[in-house]
Amino acid sequence: MLSVLTRRLLNVVPTLLSVIALVFLLFSVLPGSFMSSMGEDGRTTIDPAVMERMKKEMGLDDPLPTRFAKYVASVAVGDFGKSFRTREPVTKLIGQRIWPSLKLVFAAMAFAIAIGVTLGFFAALKPGSPVDTISMVGAISGLSLSQFWFGLMLMYLFALKLKWLPSFGYGDGGLSHLILPAVALGVGPMALLARTTRAAVLDVLNADFVRTARSKGMSERLVVKWHVLRNALVLVITIVGLQFGSLMGQAVVVEKLFAWPGVGSLMVDSVFQRDIPAVQGCILMIVLFFLAINTLVDIAYSVIDPRIRYR
Amino acid sequence: MKLPLKLPRLKGGTSLWVGGALVGLAITVAIAAPLIAHTDPVLDANLMNAEIPPDAEYWFGTDAQGRDIYSRIVYGSRISLTVGVVSQILNSLIGVTLGLTAGYWGGWWDDVVSGLTNLMLAIPSLVFALAIMAILGPGLVSLLVALGLTAWSYSCRVARAQVLSLKSQGYIQAARILGYGDLRIMFTQVLPNVLGPLIVIATLGMGSAILSEAALSFLGLGIRPPFPSWGSMLSEARDQITTAPWLSVFPGLAIFLTVLGLNLLGDGLRDILDPQSKTRRS
Amino acid sequence: MTQPLLKVEDLRIALAGDGVTHNAVENVSFEIGRGEAFGLVGESGCGKSISALAVMGLLKRPLSVASGRIVLDGREIQDASPAEWRNLRGSKIGMIFQEPMTALNPLSPVGRQIAEMFVLHEGAGWTEAMDRAEEALRQVHVPSPERRIKDFPHQLSGGMRQRVMIAIALACGPDLLIADEPTTALDVTVQAEIIDLMRELCAAKGTAILMISHDLGLVANMCRRVAVMYAGRIVESRPADAIFATPSHPYTQGLVDSLPRLGERSRRGRQKLREITGVVPAISSYPSGCRFNPRCPAATEVCREVAPGISPLPDDGLVRCHHHG
């Protein structure tokens, strides 16, 4: 168990380093750097003297490798730099946003798992039945929806017409504000989970060991309970992990639509404000979340599947 | 003894045809846009006609500037399909090149490519595209770059796996003994074997690219108004959702039906071209 | 004559295709007495495995029993309800499959997979069932069963896994053990051990065996009677020793000639192994007349047109060939 964790963490380090390098390079080497764009956008004009002072302060005059080394060193100790706009540490900005983000992501995933896995499971038990057909048509439709349009429609129906739920904002952080954005964000993963769960359960139902179970004189209910569920879970959990991990990034649009104060909307706002350190910080946060979830999934794997535990 | 337990899939057929019809419709509309649109999508603004609900003359209603939504949606299909097709060509080229060479040469290059693939997986593609759009600025070309560079990991993995499988079966060594060059082997022996799965991946990827374009345009980072991208139309429509909900309904439906068509077509094609694969999307 | 344990009469198994239905198996009849070992031999695709699955009631769409009778212990079971089948499976009939690698649930300890039998059929609690599973493992000669019951299938070798399968199949003392290619996936040395084990346990408990294999030598060595199947029909059914001495059907002759046998050289002189030319036809394209006729060295006009009936042989055997009887 411990070895799985260590090995997994060692795998994460190079990915993390390359993401840091990429994020750094994207915003340092490519055209449209902060300083030039700041003058360009027309809204702000900066006194050249002030500009010089800022450049020096932020170390923008150093050669690239030096800046990169400094950046990695500071990120390693949890310092994502200072926001260009608010002059506050980026970690502080993200810190204010991370809790709403996590709440949204977990709520969306809970919704996706509860509905998607259930639908896929029952669809697989009766392939070709009305339940199956309706679930799968629903699933492929769910995959084809654009989140923000679906969100917009939900908002129109449940907030503006029926007035059951608030239309946007974080409110006091209660459930009523959470429901619409969570459903809008969760519908894609839900559809995908319905499809993968169905495929996984069907796959397992055709496995040789299920035939063995039937040859023991087991009822279908027990076959499913004792032999199908766990094996299907192993297949489903990968998709859950990948979806879950990328959900904080996917939330960008939904957060913006519902004015949800998460990391995603911080990133979009920072992009418009050319607040490069904040954008970099948000990307790193989103990647960290992905890697953390996937590490957790790997651990969950080794708990469920003995073949991995002993390998 | 293997039993023929797999039922012939009826659904593959249905989804292939329904998907093909929807995609065919989208392509026809895009090509015939000047013929079937009622008005110019950008220039024909008339404040006298602002916010008319759908009726016999304005099928999908008009927006705040009095532009005909139907005509704008018709022209919007050009942007969506261009983004979808071009970005998937880019993604396939990158993915196949990296995958083929990584699987073929192996060694440090393989490590580099798999590192890159892990990197691409770790950054959600929408976030990556957002970052690129932030640097390049809004516009069609930036969109094509942003979406064309960020979703090649599937085709890369498929191409690499195919090379490795052919390698293990000895085909590649045999070709080498016959004196074939590396490039010739890759293009004549390996590439034809990945075309099927690749077409499936590209079809499904087109759907995701169209959704991403809509999302980026909605955020104001993709196609900027007044050009009629479905996403930017939704972005404008959002503020008028209470007074003019039709502004939001129709562009969204256009996105939904086009992407649904691509997804159904991709599913149907997979049953034909890539039967052994399971759900490969994630 | 005493009542046989299992009697299969004129079994026909249908394969439903797109609009067309083919007969995957037809006119299959055989009997197995109590404690008797019976072998069903044929190439893959000849219908021997699905015949066995029919006896277990485990055929799945698009396969189904179309007609014929399966009588177990005097009871017709071909139309039994799912609940009746569940009572038969495991307690009256046990089954071992070809792939010990995939026939066991990879995520469940082997002890539990054996213990399930006692919970299902004898109403045992899990603690008691686990104790009995340990005992069952001991009976199939798995070393240190007290540790092995906690092992997962991937921790066992192929032979050990097949022993576990035998322990499962025989756990509740069934009257009939169906073994579908039980040793095909195993190393040759392990094969012999598994065969010996099956023979020993079944002899001790009086369990009859329906042995299914492509290996005529193996089956003849283990079984008293052997039936040879070709393309969905039984072509010859004989006592095992007779089938080697005087194979009557040209297909059986082909099978016997293709077997390498020790001591044979000296008796018959130096001889090359012979093969049967041609390939097994697909279910959808069975030839008319005798199904073996395209590959048969002795085929004549009648073989191509008329399906041969069954003719008795002097030694209590049956053959389906125009050139006999």
UniProtKB/TrEMBL annotation, chain A:
Signal peptide: none annotated. Residues 98-297 form the ABC transmembrane type-1 domain. It is found in: Cell membrane. Coiled coil: none annotated. One of its GO terms (biological process) is transmembrane transport. It comes from the Bacteria. One of its GO terms (cellular component) is plasma membrane. SUPFAM superfamilies: MetI-like. InterPro entries: BPD_transp_1_N, MetI-like, MetI-like_sf. It is a multi-pass membrane protein. The keyword Calcium does not apply. The chain crosses the membrane at residues 12-30, 104-125, 137-158, 178-194, 232-258, 278-304. Part of the ABC transporter complex GsiABCD involved in glutathione import. Probably responsible for the translocation of the substrate across the membrane. Belongs to the binding-protein-dependent transport system permease family. This is Glutathione transport system permease protein GsiC.
From TrEMBL, chain B:
It holds the Pfam family BPD_transp_1. GO terms for cellular component: plasma membrane. It comes from the Bacteria. The chain crosses the membrane at residues 16-37, 81-106, 126-152, 194-223, 243-265. It is a multi-pass membrane protein. Gene3D superfamilies: MetI-like. Its main location: membrane. CDD domains: TM_PBP2. Keywords: Cell membrane, Membrane, Transmembrane, Transmembrane helix, Transport. The keyword Cell membrane applies. Residues 77-266 form the ABC transmembrane type-1 domain. It is found in: Cell membrane. GO terms for biological process: transmembrane transport. Belongs to the binding-protein-dependent transport system permease family. This is Peptide/nickel transport system permease protein. It comes from Enhydrobacter aerosaccus.
UniProtKB/TrEMBL annotation, chain C:
It holds the Pfam family ABC_tran. SUPFAM superfamilies: P-loop containing nucleoside triphosphate hydrolases (SSF52540). It is a peripheral membrane protein. Its main location: membrane. GO terms for cellular component: plasma membrane. One of its GO terms (biological process) is peptide transport. Belongs to the ABC transporter superfamily. This is Peptide/nickel transport system ATP-binding protein. It comes from Enhydrobacter aerosaccus.
